[in-house]
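INTERNAL AUDIT FORM
Audit reference: QA-55
Scope: verify that the stored structure record matches its stored sequence.
Auditor: D.O.
Record contents follow.
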Amino acid sequence: MNPRTLTVPLRSLRSSIPLRPAAVTPRIAAIPAARLNVARTYSASADAGREDKFHAEEDKRISELENAKKESDKKAEELAEQIKELKKEIQYVRADYQTAVRRAAEDKVKNSEMAIASFARALLGTVDILSTALRSVPQPIEHQALKQLYDGVELTQKALIQTFGQHKMKRIENLQGQQFDPNYHEAEFMIPKEVAPKRADGEPHGPGEIMQVNSEGWLIGDRVLRPAKVGVVQPE
């Protein structure tokens, strides 16, 4: 066989075989418009549902917060009322305590005064005797011995009165010319205005005035230990 006769067919065969396969473009089937509209509608409905659910949850949380605030406000009002009542109770307790302290102090003073009242009342007679003795001595004193005795009695009286003062005892003084007061004075006698002696300034005593003091009155604290015994001008 002739080699040339084989060469020609081989060449023609080689030229007829493609070197690379041709690219194949895939075909995508067209989606119907109705199906696309359904998909869009479903997506919008899903979004609307999620939004409604979100708003519902938000409304629920807001409602819970509002209820919690109302409950908190109610408890705050109750606590404020309790605090108000407690303040009142504290004020009452404080007032009761202050009253108790004041009464205890007053009772202590009264008990102290009562403890010495009977003893002091007995000593008032001694003061009266000393006062009478001093008034009975004519002035001026010429005898030295009598002067020394007078000074001794006077010192004794002053020391006794000073001791009374240490226990809150004091005399009811400056009685002449004052109006008679039954709370502090005891009238031993009354005389008409026409026959009553005049005052030290020469003026006549008025009705109801004290013109003579027979016995001094004494106070212990604010209480009368012994009323002053006086003579009074008869009231009109």
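Auditor finding: record pair retrieved intact. The domain at 170-236 is CATH 2.30.22.10 (Nucleotide Exchange Factor Grpe; Chain A, domain 2).
Action required: none
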